[in-house]
User: What shape does this take?
Amino acid sequence: MERFHGVIGVIFILGLAYLCSNNKKKINFRLVASGLTLQIVIAILVLRVAPVQHFFEFLGKGMQKIEQFAKVGVDFVYGGVAVIGFDGKTHAYAAPESFIFAFNVTATIILVCVLVAIFYHFGIMQRIVSVIAKGMNFIMRVSGAEALSNVASAFVGQVEAQVMIKPYLKGMTKSELLASMSGSLACIAGGILIVYANMGAQAGMNLAPKLIMASLMAAPGALIISKIVFPETEVSQTMGKVKLEVKSEYTNLIDAISHGAGEGFKIAMNVIAMLIGFIALIALVDYTLINIGHLFNPNFNLSLDWIFGRLFYPFAWSMGIPDVDVSNAATLLGQKLTVNEFLAFKNLTTKAVPIVTEKGILIISIAICGFANFSSVGMQIGGIGELAPERRADLAKLGLKALMCGTLASYLSASIAGVLM
Assistant: This one.
């Protein structure tokens, strides 16, 4: 029965979404059922079907190769820097044993953004997104704009995904807008996914198949939760239609590479800045909390991790995470939502917040694989607001709902995967 513990999580998450619904009578239960079926099929294919497993393992090895290629570029820039390697000895930065988080992560993100820009320039990315979106549109009967943005979010960043549906943003219904925002928060960009997979590989964790599965499951999962929370009551302009322009915004291949490298650098610097700022702020808050705790009990070390471990405990337990890992898993869920997923993955892969069971690692890695955090909501409102200024007020009103939907979508995927493991 322990294996089916995650069913409690599925019921708990769907029930919570139902309680938060603004129009329970209009919920499309066919959409919910078809979306759950699609999520289950994806999980079964990745976890149970050997050829698919081998394919995703192959993709995982490819991700590690991308990091190696990125290191060739960054070795030229930082080649004269001496670092402490994995063996505890001093090496030149170009040595295989070396690793500096900021340098290596920056290089990987830049290379992946360059590759995405190249694929976009030649129309490859748009065609892949369009084909998958048509399939999801047929299965779930969602609108074309919703399907496109949610599928695109599994490949590109949360704002870039909205660029693909820019012509429709002005006329999208509020339900479509929430679904689109929720999908972008539930999924994770390809470049960041590769970084997390490689962080896991360095720690001996094979996270790549889990993270790819998580991002694919998040697209229908976000549609399920958002359509329960905010059912469609208006007429969609793109219902039953999936049309995506394959036109490139770049002048030529060199322009695409240049833009990709520039965008990758901006993203990488943003990640580094957020980590420095948030981790430093957490240290400050923890220092304050510990002193407050000591006022009541000299042995009581109150901290954010202590608070997260109790606040998110019901979610971690209901998803089917083994008892030995529930408290630490709850801490990671809290770090991911309130700070960002980078900190959560860093603490998971470096074992600063250890998860010791294989099932615990599977569930928690899927649950924290997404952009759903408070800072991302601000980025999304600002980014989409630039694309469609007339929708800024709607975006602001839907921001926290999207955060909740994106978070619950990741938890739903994790619960389903835990049942099937």
